[in-house]
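Long-time lurker. I teach an intro course on protein structure, and each term I like to show students one example going from raw sequence to a predicted 3D structure in C-alpha cell notation. This year I'd like something fresh instead of my usual example. Would anyone be willing to generate the C-alpha cells for the chain below so I can use it in lecture? Attribution to the forum is fine with me.
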Amino acid sequence: MIKPGDTGILGIGIDDTDSPRGMCTTYVMHRIINEVVDMGGSLIDYPRLIRLNPTCPFKTRGNAALASFFKIDEELKARAKEMVVEKVEELSEMDQPGTDPGVVFSDTLDLPDEIKNFSEMAVKKMVSMEHTRVLLRKYRLESVGFNGGRGIVGALAALGNSFKFGYTFELIAYRRSENWGKKRLVSPQSVENMSVLTHGCTFDNLDDLTGEIKITPHTSCPVLLGIRSVDSNCLEQAFKLLDINEVVDGHRIFKTNQATDSHISKVDYIKMIEPYTTVVLRALVVSPPKVEVGGHVFIWVGDGENSIRAAAYEPTKSFRESVKSLIAGDLIDVYGSYKPVSDFPPTINLEKFEVIRLAAAYSNPPCPECGHTMKSEGFNKGFQCPKCKFRSTSVQKVPIRRTLKIGMYTVPPRARRHLSRPVF
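-- Reply from a regular --
Happy to contribute to a lecture. Here you go:
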C-alpha cells in the first residue's frame, strides 16, 4: 500500500506535445509508462488524462494534459527523468507553431493544496506562466520546457488534479506509425453492438440521431479509438467486442475528468461572467429565438439587471430545435462558454440548458365567423380577422400546450465537449 509520504515516488506530468498536424499527448505518456515499467517502476493507479480550460484561445485540440505516478527505486529516478525528457523531445511536434512541450516531476503523491487549487483553476479559467513558475519554485518541483515551455502549465495542473468533481475513464488504443493518417479500420456495426451491450457503462460511442461513430478521431494522430466509461471494469470487455481490421499498437485505460462539468463555474449575474470561462447562469428568456444565416439559433436571456445573447450553432443540429422551443418568460439554467469576439455582442456558446420553469404560451384565437386566425388590434382593443374583417373584444387568446418539458437539454455527442457532462 503506497502512502503519500513514502519514498520512491515519481510523478510525471506532460503537456503540449501535439499539434494540429498530429501526435497525441496520451500517446507520449503511453510510451513513457512503458519505458518506466521496463526500468523496474510500477504504475500507481491509472494514469490521469486531464482536460484543461476548453475556452483557452491557444489550446491544443482537446487541451489534454497527462500525469502518471510510479513506485520506483530512488537510484533509478534520475535515469527515469532523463528518459522522460528525451522521449518528450523525440515524439513532440516541436517544429509546429504553438507546440511548446513541458514536463514537471514530483516526488510525492499528495501535492500541496495550493497546487490542487491551481489545477482546478486551470480547468475553469486562464492561468499564467508566471503563476506556474512561482509554484514550481515554492515547492521545488523540477520542470523542463521546450520552445516557449507553456506546457509546464498543463503538466503541473495534471499532477495536481484531485478529481474534486468526479471522474470517468477512457480506454485509448493506438495505431502503428505506418497507419497514421490512413483511414481507421474499425467496423461501425461492431461499435453499435458494443454500445448496446455495454449500455449504462460506456457512453457517447456514437451519435444516436446520425449514426456517426464517435470513438474514432478524424485526425492523423496515433490514436485508433477511445472508449469512454463511467466504470473502468467494462472497458476491456467493450474493447474486445470491436471488430478492428488493423494491428493495434497497444492500449491503455486513463482516469479522466471528462464528462464531469468540472470546467463550469456558477455565476449569479451576467456581470460576473469572465472572458474565456464556461458558466452556468439562471436566467429568464427575454426574447423569442431567432434563426440566422447558416442555421444558427440565438436567444437573449436576462438576470433582471442585464441581458446577454446565447447561441446554439449549426453543428449542434437537433439541439437547436430545443432552443427554438423556448419562449420569453421561460426560466432556464444556461450552460456555456464566453469567448469575446470583436464586432459581435457578448455571447454564451451553449453546451446545454435546463428548463426550471415554463412560461404559459398562447396563440391568437380563431375567427368565430370563418375560422381564420385573428390578429390583435392592440392592448385591450380585441382582435380582427384579416380575412373576413370580423372584429371582437370578447374573444380571448388560446392556451398552447408546450412540447418542451422541465429538464436538461444537451447537444448531441457529435458536438459535445470532452468536459461536458451528458445526461446519463
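Some talking points for your students: Residues 25-39 form the longest helix (15 residues). Residues 330 and 358 are 5 Å apart (CA to CA).
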